[in-house]
TrEMBL record:
Domain of life from the UniProt record: Bacteria
Protein name: Membrane protein
Assigned keywords, A-Z: Membrane, Transmembrane, Transmembrane helix
Transmembrane in keyword set: yes
Signal peptide start and end residues: none
Domain Sodium symporter small subunit stretches: 8-84
Membrane-spanning residues: 20-40, 52-72
Pfam family, one: DUF4212
Length: 85
């Protein structure tokens, strides 16, 4: 990564990725687990309503998926911009 425009493009893509994943995490944890919980109360999963499931377990599972997706995406960005390890 020799020039400044390439460096800026890399960091712009990095920040966009972080923002996207934070929005997904917010929607899964706060949105589905708290704000939308009354709307999800009629949907049953594992013996409880979907809103409760997201508040107790679903948000954590989404977070784990996001960790692996972020690592995959950053490895791809690193290769595209020539800064892989």
């Amino acid at each position: 990564m020799a020039d400044k425009s390439s460096s800026n493009a890399y960091w712009k893509a990095n920040i966009r990725t972080i923002q996207l994943f934070l929005v997904i995490w917010f929607v899964a944890s706060f949105g589905f687990g708290i704000l939308l919980r009354p709307m999800l109360a009629g949907i049953s999963i594992g013996g409880t309503d979907l809103g409760f499931w997201f508040a107790q377990q679903g948000a954590a599972l989404v977070f784990l998926v996001l960790i692996f997706a972020y690592a995959w995406r950053m490895n791809k960005l690193d290769r595209e911009h020539g800064v892989e390890e």
